[in-house]
Structure formats: structure tokens, C-alpha cells
Amino acid sequence: MSNVFSHVKSVAIVLLAALCVYQTGLLWFVNITNRNFLLNFLPFLQAEELPEGFDKFVTPWRHVRANADGTFSTRFEGLTGSSAGRVRPADAVLVQLLADGSFVDVIPAEYENILPFLTYPAYTYSYAFPMDAEKFSLGFGQRGGVLAGQGLPPFKQVIVRMDGYVVFVCVYGNAYVFSVPLTDFEQNGEWENVYTAEGGLRISKPYAVDGQSVFALDHVRREVEGFFGNPAAIRSIVDSAVWVYRDATTIVRYYDSHVLEYISYRPVDRSAGVSFEVDFVAAVQFVERDRRVINDIYLADYREEGSRHVFYFGFLVGGLPLTSWGVGDMAGLAYPVTVTVDHGTVVRYRKLAVSFHVEGG
């Protein structure tokens, strides 16, 4: 019996040692530059490829540039409109930082300490939610690296000086300073200053007939058919102030408060495990496929619900974030768009079914 036990213990030790090597490889030996020689001999150390489109996760909600004349230019960036996929001047610095940067210091995140890093040329990326360092690194194609090594807390701002200094302004009162070895980063283009549209916003209701608050069952049905695999199988139900459309696996409710809710009961493939990256891409792509979301979106927040991820999106209107809905009964709808994803499958989608336009635009 003792020999059997010793054999089992030896096998367990070997398996644990192999697992340690594998995990260490993921943390320290993998980066997008593929320059580590171990990858040539141990290909299993390469991490799973990130889904296309996950780089949008690190799109800042607001992007500020310090100008040479002491002024600042501001741009708000979206995930689905004309700004989607834009390569920002400071992106190259951040990629270099994650690959080869080094930690410098921790300083109190007070104005007088941050001000020296805001001198021209400098770029500030602001996020609408506390950004996790590991997910931030993944958004730039890196696993592990300098941020993980310093145990960087969640942050909401990244200041990039084009002479090679990067400051992460954390949500708990400290700022982490890093340096980048290369300083010959290219700057490009002039920015327009942010503007405020006069005359307010114009609101249209895309699920109403002729843009008015008049509904017809057939009209709304045609508008929601894109949520179903087979429109011929849709059944329509009118329940008080709610229009309900369903088939065997999908329910779409449209409320007279101009809120649309989609719920999917399709089987979820859990064999691949939980992936934040895959779920984020699925959420953005689902919104992109909804032809009735006219306004650009930005990621306002997210949270975990067991194996699910819930993503909250805000609207950009005329290049500015919409902060007040001003339409319908918004009880329980804290953000214009909410997407719940489970193992890469969108299981719930709730949105303010209203489009906003700048008056006169």
C-alpha cells in the first residue's frame, strides 16, 4: 500500500510542477513581441489569442491633449462610430511601456504633483470606470508585465508624456510613475477644441410610426425582427403598455416608455470557460448589429455576476457624452444600454430605444 501511495504522490508532484511551469510561462514569458526564445521550444506557453476587437476595451472615454500654448484640447471617443479603432499618439508609448518599461515611484495624486506631467506634449486618457491593470494590459496585447509586477491598483486616468514618462492616477489617492526607454514617438495632427452645441438635443423614437409616439403592432414587429433567427416564427402579444414578440428561444419586449428588452433562452456553450475578453467583444458586436442604435457608445462601467459579465454603455451625441436622458420612465435604467453576456452569448440586452441628434445637425 505504501508503494502505491508513494507512486500517486510522485505523479501528483510532477503534475503540480508542470502546472507551475505553465503558469509561470503565461505570466512572464508571453508578450506580443514574441521575442522570448523559450517560445520557440515550448510553444504551449503561448497564451490563448485575444479575440479581435478587444483592443476597444482600452478606448478612453475622454482624451485630452496639452497644447504647446498652454491650452488643452478634448475629444470624447466611442466604440462604434467614426472614432472607433483610432490609433492615438500616446498608444505607442503605452505599448512600449508594457513591453519594456520600468517603475519609477509612487506619489500622492494631488494637483501639484501631477501638474509637471501635464506640460506639452502630454496626453491624458480618462476612463468612466476604475480600470483594472491586468485587463488594461490585455487591451494592448500584453499579459503580465510591468503593471502586474507593481500590483497597480485600479485607475481612472493615464497621463502619457511624450518624453517617456507615464503616470497612472489611481482611484485610492496615489499615482504610479513609470518610464519608457524610447522617446522618439511621433505626434500627429491638430485637434479641434471640444464644442457645445447650441439649441439642445433633438430626440427621435425609431420604433414609433413617423417618429411620433404612435405605435402599430406590425410596425414595431418589423423593427425588432433583426433580433430573431426566423422572423416567420415570431408571435406577437400586446399586454397593456408592453409589446411582446417571441419565438421558442427569444423574447423582445418594447415598453411605451421607449425601453426595449431582449432576453435569449438559447443554450449557452460553457465548455470554453469564462472569458472577460470574449464577453466584452460579444457585447460590443451585439450593439453594433442593432441598426436602431444610431448614437455612438462608450463603455461606462462593467461588473461580474457569477459566470456572466454585465456591460454598461453610454451615448455620445455630437461628440459629447449624454449625461441626462430626459425621456420616458427611466426607473431601473441607469445607463442607455446594458448588455449581459454569458460565455460569449448575449443573454440579455436592455436599451433606451431613442436616438439623439444635435439641433440643426
Describe the structure.
The chain is 22% helix and 31% strand. The longest helix is centred in the first third of the chain and has 28 residues, at 2-29. Strands 9, 10, 11, 12, 13, 14, 15, 16 and 17 form a nine-stranded antiparallel sheet that branches. The chain has a seven-stranded antiparallel sheet with strand order 2-1-4-5-6-7-3, with helices on one face. It has a two-stranded antiparallel sheet with strand order 8-18. It has three domains: 2-45; 54-179, no CATH class; 201-358, YycH protein, domain 2 (TATA-Binding Protein, 2-Layer Sandwich). By secondary structure, the protein is α+β, with helices and mostly antiparallel strands. The protein has helices at 2-29, 38-41, 91-100, 111-114, 133-139, 146-149, 217-224, 276-289; strands spanning 62-66, 72-76, 102-108, 122-131, 155-161, 165-170, 174-179, 201-204, 235-239, 242-246, 250-255, 259-264, 296-305, 308-317, 320-321, 337-342, 345-352, 355-358. Mean pLDDT is 81; it is low at 24-47 and 189-198.
Give a short synopsis of this structure.
The protein is 22% helix and 31% strand. It is built from eight helices and 18 strands. The protein has helices at residues 2-29, 38-41, 91-100, 111-114, 133-139, 146-149, 217-224, 276-289, and strands at residues 62-66, 72-76, 102-108, 122-131, 155-161, 165-170, 174-179, 201-204, 235-239, 242-246, 250-255, 259-264, 296-305, 308-317, 320-321, 337-342, 345-352, 355-358.
Keywords, please?
single chain, TATA-Binding Protein, nine-stranded antiparallel β-sheet, seven-stranded antiparallel β-sheet, 18 strands, 31% strand
